[in-house]
Amino acid sequence: MKGNEVLAEAAMRAGCRFFFGYPITPQTELAAYMAKKLPLIGGTFLQAESEIAAINMVYGAAAAGARVMTSSSSPGVSLKGEGVSYMAGADCPGVIVNVERGGPGLGGIQPSQSDYFQATRALGHGDFYMPVLAPSTVQEMADLIYDAFDLADEYRTPTMILADGMIGQMMEPVLLPPERDLDSLPNKPWATSGHAGKREHNVINSLYLSPEKLEQTNFERFERYAEIQEKHQRQELMECDDADIVVVAFGAASRIARTAVRDARAKGIKAGLLRPITLWPFPTKAIEQVIASGASKFLSVELNMGQMVQDVRLAVNGRASVDFFGRTGGVLPTPEEVLAAIEAVAAGESVCQSAEPGAVGSLLPHPQHRKSSYERGE
Amino acid sequence: MARIIVDDVHCKGCGLCVAACPKGVLALDQERITPKGYHPAKMVKEGCIACSSCYFTCPDVAITVVK
Amino acid sequence: MAKPDCGSVTLPDYQQERIGSQIAEGETIKSARPHALTDAIFNYCPGCTHGIVNRLVAECIDELGIEGKTVGIAPVGCSVMMYDFMNCDMIEAAHGRAPAVATGVKRVHPDNVVFAYQGDGDLASIGTAETVHAATRGEKITVIFINNAIYGMTGGQMAPTSLPNQVTQTSPYGRDVSKVGYPVRIAEMVSTLDGVAYVERVTCDSRKHIMQAKKAIKKAFQNQIDGIGYSLVEVVSTCPTNWGMTPLDAFQWLRDNMLPYYPLGVYKDVVADGFANAAEAALDRAKDCPIAQQKKEA
Question: Which of these, A138, A269, B27, C213, could form a disulfide with A3 (CB 3.0-4.6 Å)?
Answer without folding.
Answer: A138
